[in-house]
């Protein structure tokens, strides 16, 4: 394990998980008996939601071994872990920011097969576990900017998408990379409601141009905050493209396909005039309904501690990636 | 059927309890992380939706009074309307404080440029005008104009649900349901107006 530069609580400071949950159980039991005395079952259920911990026991997360290359450790204040794993857009598990954490804990993330095929010399199907072993993991501190104008700073653990693509050897015809999320309405209740439930079609699909995918910043993440990803953050395998709006960073990937033509992408299908294929973070190009010039920082502060900051072109990665788009009109190719 | 003054007082108490209980729930929900790790956005939306719900309740009172033949119900309508204004103020305040961090130049810039913000601001300004003139003195001063002015509530019932739908990332059930309810309440009035007029002729 690499040496960690951040402060961790000592073992004595952390409540053991088992003790934590046994306390919860006592409180819950008391809550039930007190409420049962006085209230109708429906009212009891509503109160129950509020007074009990709204989230089930979190899915198990394994500690990961990884390098910490200095190039990807900018001096930025990290968004606290409980906010990174408790404030998520993941319509497969509900529409509110707290829904994924509440609804995703039962997701079966192992075994997990990933298919990599299409315009490649060596198509493969393998378990995400093998991916984790085959490619050296790195921790990278990336800015994360949502199209809804909020942002975080997140310590991802993963490997370069380009490494995987080199391994399967794209053919000379390959120009795009398409990604597909798990489609399993039994496990992902949001999918069962279909498009009426969320306004988007499932399975969630995304895509990159091959040169974007080969860029060293493009990461396939398997972990966050030193451990495997929690389900609500896209376990067991997700994309992270830090210079694009968050919706490009598809979660729970089951298939990566190399293509000759530009693949359809979920949010572009839902509203083509609002969400483009490129979706590069760009303070100059507003969303048709709101401004992208600034962002609310999800920081360690409380509710009233609000930080807004100007949004940077390509989310602060312009030096590294602007060259991918020379000669393109980024207003048209938004 | 009439309502005794006592019954009206009880009803008004109930309305205050409802408005206050929703506020209490909000405070508790924030403390219990019910809105998730970062409550700002959900809290803003909750205030907006609650304002809409009180608006719908206001618009439900005259149909209710008609169906139940209890004209005295109208006497609690102002109170419900004021609670709607209260929640609309909280919504605006929460947006300015929690989303913009009191960067009011940003607020003004947004209002001018964003159609959904424009609708929201217009709705709030109209509600402000209605709240300020909701007292008996204004009613006397304005005379017939008072009734005309207070028909602006129908404009709010059109603008505010559209404001909600336009503010979200994709078309999801909640804002659609609110638009549907607003449409029902307004269509009922149109239908009645048309029917009553045709009966007269």
Walk me through this protein's architecture.
The complex is a heterodimer of chains A (334) and B (201). Chain A is of the alpha+beta class and 334 residues long. Chain A folds into 2 domains: 40 residues; 256 residues, Oxidoreductase, molybdopterin-binding domain (Sulfite Oxidase, Chain A, domain 2), CATH 3.90.420.10. Chain A contains 11 helices and 12 strands. In chain A, the strands form 2 sheets. In chain A, strands 3, 4, 7, 8, 9, 11 and 12 form a 7-stranded mixed beta sheet that branches. Chain A has a 5-stranded mixed beta sheet with strand order 2-1-10-5-6. In chain A, helix 1 packs antiparallel against helix 2. Chain A starts with 16 loop residues before the first helix and ends in a 13-residue tail after the last helix. The N terminus of chain A is likely disordered. Chain B is an all-alpha fold. Chain B is built from 9 helices and no strands. Chains A and B meet through helix 2 and helix 8 of A and helix 1, helix 2, helix 3 and helix 4 of B.
CATH superfamily of the largest domain in chain A, by name, is: Oxidoreductase, molybdopterin-binding domain
* Distance between the amino and carboxyl termini of chain A: 40 Å
- Average pLDDT of chain A, rounded to a whole number, is 87
Strand content of chain B: under 5%
Determine the N-to-C terminus distance of chain B.
29 Å
In short:
The complex is a heterodimer of chains A (334) and B (201). Chain A has 334 residues and is an alpha+beta fold.
């Amino acid at each position: 394990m690499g040496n960690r530069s951040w402060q961790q609580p000592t073992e004595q400071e952390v409540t053991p998980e088992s003790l934590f949950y046994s306390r919860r159980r006592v409180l819950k039991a008391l809550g039930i008996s007190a409420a049962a005395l006085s209230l109708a079952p429906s009212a009891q259920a509503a109160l129950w939601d509020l007074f009990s911990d709204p989230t089930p026991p979190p899915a198990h997360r394994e500690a990961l071994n990884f390098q910490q290359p200095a190039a990807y450790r900018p001096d930025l204040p990290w968004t606290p872990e409980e906010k990174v794993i408790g404030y998520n857009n993941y319509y497969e598990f509900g529409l509110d920011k707290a829904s994924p954490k509440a609804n995703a804990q039962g997701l079966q993330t192992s075994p997990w097969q990933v298919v990599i095929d299409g315009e490649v010399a060596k198509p493969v199907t393998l378990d995400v576990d093998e991916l984790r072993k085959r490619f050296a993991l790195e921790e990278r501190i990336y800015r994360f900017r949502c199209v809804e104008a909020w942002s975080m700073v997140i310590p991802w653990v993963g490997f370069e998408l380009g490494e995987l693509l080199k391994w399967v050897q794209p053919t000379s015809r390959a120009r795009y990379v398409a990604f597909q999320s798990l489609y399993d309405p039994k496990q992902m209740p949001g999918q069962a409601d279909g498009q009426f439930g969320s306004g988007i079609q499932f399975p969630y699909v995304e895509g990159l141009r091959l040169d974007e995918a080969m860029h060293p910043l493009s990461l396939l993440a398997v972990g966050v905050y030193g451990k495997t990803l929690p389900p609500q953050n896209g376990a067991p395998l997700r994309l992270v493209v830090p210079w694009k709006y968050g919706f490009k960073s598809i979660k729970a990937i089951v298939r990566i396909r190399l293509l000759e033509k530009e693949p359809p992408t979920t949010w572009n299908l839902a509203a083509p005039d609002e969400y483009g294929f490129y979706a590069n973070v760009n303070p100059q190009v507003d969303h048709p309904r709101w401004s992208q010039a600034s962002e609310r920082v999800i920081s360690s502060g409380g509710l009233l501690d609000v930080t807004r900051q100007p949004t940077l072109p390509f989310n602060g990665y312009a030096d590294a990636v602007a060259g991918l788009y020379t000669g393109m009109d980024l207003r048209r190719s938004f | 059927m009439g309502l005794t003054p006592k019954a009206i007082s009880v009803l008004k108490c109930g309305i205050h309890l409802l408005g206050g209980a929703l506020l209490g729930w909000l405070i508790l929900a924030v403390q219990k992380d019910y809105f998730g790790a970062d409550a700002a956005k959900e809290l803003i939306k909750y205030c907006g939706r609650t304002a809409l719900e009180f608006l719908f309740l206001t618009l439900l009172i005259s149909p209710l009074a008609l169906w139940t033949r209890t004209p005295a119900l109208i006497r609690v309508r102002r109170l419900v309307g004021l609670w709607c204004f209260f929640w609309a103020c909280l919504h605006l305040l929460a947006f300015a404080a929690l989303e913009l961090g009191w960067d009011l130049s940003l607020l003004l810039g947004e209002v001018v440029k964003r159609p959904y913000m424009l609708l929201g601001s217009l709705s709030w300004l109209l509600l402000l005008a209605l709240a300020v003139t909701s007292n008996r003195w204004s009613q006397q001063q304005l005379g017939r104009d008072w009734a005309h002015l207070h028909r602006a509530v129908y404009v709010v019932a059109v603008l505010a649900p559209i404001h909600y739908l336009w503010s979200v990332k994709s078309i999801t059930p909640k804002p659609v349901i609110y638009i549907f309810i607003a449409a029902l309440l307004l269509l009922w009035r149109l239908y009645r107006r048309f029917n009553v007029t045709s009966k007269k002729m």
